[in-house]
Every structure is written in structure tokens, then in C-alpha cells.
Amino acid sequence: MRKKIVVLTGAGMSVESGLKTFRDADGLWENYPVAKVATHEGWEADPTLVTNFYNMLRRKCVNVKPNEGHRLVAELEKDYDVTVVTQNVDNLHEAAGSTHVIHLHGELMKVCSSRDVDDPRYQQLLTADNCEIAPGTKAGDGSLLRPFIVFFGEAVPNITVAAEVCQEADIFVIIGTSLAVYPAAGLIHYVRPSVPVYIIDPKPVNAGSHHITQILKGASDGMRELVGML
To answer: For the chain, give me the number of helices (H) and strands (E)?
Structure first.
């Protein structure tokens, strides 16, 4: 029986690939106020602004490549049963070869109904050569197509699935997240106390009472060290 590794990743996982963090300390994302482009209120106030913002993000994202950290996470599948739980909306884990990825905060390359975000009938996967949505475009249910992103203040539908996966982990790895954003930060509490926890981040992370090994490095350097330890 192969050991189960669960890898929880945050914005620091993709920084080396050139993507800015979802929410920096200044409250801006790609120089836009987060409240205007990543909240339900922002969407209601100006869906054209929000649609164009995510069009811009997709244009950037399709030219971004996975970094070595992403690739090393994917390579763990050679020896382990690996599930990635990511707070990131990019698809860099999939692009690197990870085959089981749970997105907590949505997926940048998808759009959906603004009436029922989670109805799979109206979700569309965009492609690199067709990654933009014209403002005003409607979903099959007649509502405006909106980004398949969990806006601030909205429920995180995949958190229950992620919690169940964390309960089964034999090894738990945290990369590039300060464990400050809930509910994702609470996933460590579902990990059994006996399970070794590895945290890869340039800054120390307070993760409670688990048996924790902190690797104070970025995603790629930290993953290289972790692979050697495992």
C-alpha cells in the first residue's frame, strides 16, 4: 500500500512562475482593489470590470509555466498516492503533471453561471487560444457568465472534500501559504496528530501542535530538500 501524501499549496507555490499573490498586504491584486474584482458585491456593481479583469489574468496565465516546485510535487506520484489541495486558481499543478488536484478557490480557466456557480451544466473550460469572455455573455440558464472563482465571502464548496482527504494523509506538506486564510488554514486540524507535517515557506509559519518540520525556503528549493528527506 502506497503512502498517501496530501500537499496544501498557496500563493507562494506559483510566485516563482511569475504570478502575483491573490491578496497582498496592500489589498491590491494586479493593481486592482480586491473588493472590486474578487467579491460578489464587486461583481454585482460592475460585471464588465470583473469579466475584463479575469480575461486579463487568463491572458497572463496561459503564458506562465510550472516551476520546479510544481514539477517535483507531480513527480511524487511515482512513489506515493498524492493529492494536491490548492488555494491557487491557476492550473500550474495540472500543467506540471499532478493528476489529483482539489481547487479550493475556483479555477481561472473556467466560467460559470452567475445564478448557480456550482451547476456543472453551465460551467465552461476555456482554452489557451480562446481564453476570453465578452462582457455580457450569458450562460445556458440565461444568467451572465462569471468567473469560476470563489469570491471573498462566498462558501468554499470543496472544503469538505479536502478535509476528508487530509484525514487520510500519511504525510502532510504545506507549501507557500501562511495558514492565515480560512477555511483552508483549518485543514491542518484534520490531519492525525501522529502524521509528519512539512512546511515549505521562506518565513516561519505557526501551525499549532503537530510534529512539524519547517523548511525555510521557496517552493522549488524547498521541494528539492523535501524530496531528499523523504
So the answer is: 7, 11
Q: First and final CA of the chain: distance in angstroms?
A: 16
Per-residue pLDDT at 127 exceeds 80: yes
Q: Are 86 and 80 in contact (CB under 8 A)?
A: no
92: helix, coil or strand? helix
pLDDT digits (tens, 9 = 90+) for 162-184: 999 999 999 999 999 877 777 88
Residue appearing with cell numbers 507557500: 176
Which grid coordinates are listed for 17?
A: 512562475
* 57 close to 109: Cβ distance less than 8 angstroms: no
The model's confidence at residue 25, banded by pLDDT at 50, 70 and 90, is very low
Catalytic residues: 105
DSSP result, 23-89: S-TTSEETTEEHHHHSBHHHHHH-HHHHHHHHHHHHHHHTT----HHHHHHHHGGGTSEEEEEE---
19, 64 Cβ separation under 8 angstroms: yes
Ranking 42-56, 57-71, 173-187 by mean pLDDT, the lowest is: 173-187
Q: Which residues contact 52 (CB under 8 A, 6 or more apart)?
A: 135
CA separation, residue 167 to residues 124, 195, 209, 225, 228 (Å): 31, 10, 16, 25, 25
